[in-house]
UniProtKB/TrEMBL annotation:
Assembly information from the UniProt record: Homodimer.
Function recorded in the entry: Involved in the gluconeogenesis. Catalyzes stereospecifically the conversion of dihydroxyacetone phosphate (DHAP) to D-glyceraldehyde-3-phosphate (G3P).
E.C. designation(s): 5.3.1.1
UniProt-listed NCBIfam families: tim (TIGR00419)
Domain of life: Bacteria
Active site: H96 (electrophile), E168 (proton acceptor)
Name under which the protein is recorded: Triosephosphate isomerase
Amino acid sequence: MSRKYLIAGNWKMNKTPADGADLAKEIAAFVTKDESVEVVICPTAVALDRVSSVIEGSAVKLGAQNLYPKASGAYTGEISAEMLRAVFAKYVVLGHSERREYFGETDAFVNEKVKFSLENNLNPILCIGETLEQREADETLEVNKTQLLGGLEGVSEEDMPKVVIAYEPVWAIGTGKTATPEMAQEVHAAIRSELAAKYGEAVAEKVRILYGGSMKPANADELLAMKDIDGGLIGGAALDAKSFSDLIASAR
Ligand code: PEP
């Protein structure tokens, strides 16, 4: 497989800038320059600048948790792509289920953000995933297809290798419940075949599809062994240097 594993830590609304800097220092010490795994950490907006200085010169990359799809202006509380680039962010998490649920983000809005991030040299990590009710109603593949194609509307074939998809079943996020490797693989394979239908096989083979949802050192090996799982988007287990390092080691 030519896809490089990606382990991304989503710190959500955790860690002050000082605490984030300490954690980033420990992670940077663990990640080698010739790392076979791409490692990204996504602190809160106020910690981005400080964490960026700490990881400068290391192999750890910086990601943001959100952006607003306008260049600048009267958008109180929001953060622009230019601001993220100014602190050397390379990735941005978009469409996380928490943003869809608590902040009413729709596929159309997430799509605007995905396109805006690509236009501004930021790699989007597009999150999709079904709720428990949707899984129980046998709607899993349909829901993921809708969110995938909605988020990628108008995204060109050339830009697709810069896009990362994160499949995050909502019922598995922060709950301690993980999809079995087989359950996750089924959805990952379906996502890849949707990408192949839209962009062709060669492009679909290049796109990394991460699993997210209570991924931890104890279950990482078997999830990462699946053919279409190319890494993880990690919440809780990314807040501790030891467990995050163990996850990186699992992906090596
Ligand atoms: C996430 O929110 O992206 C996530 C996967 O969280 P957790 O690992 O805590 O389930």
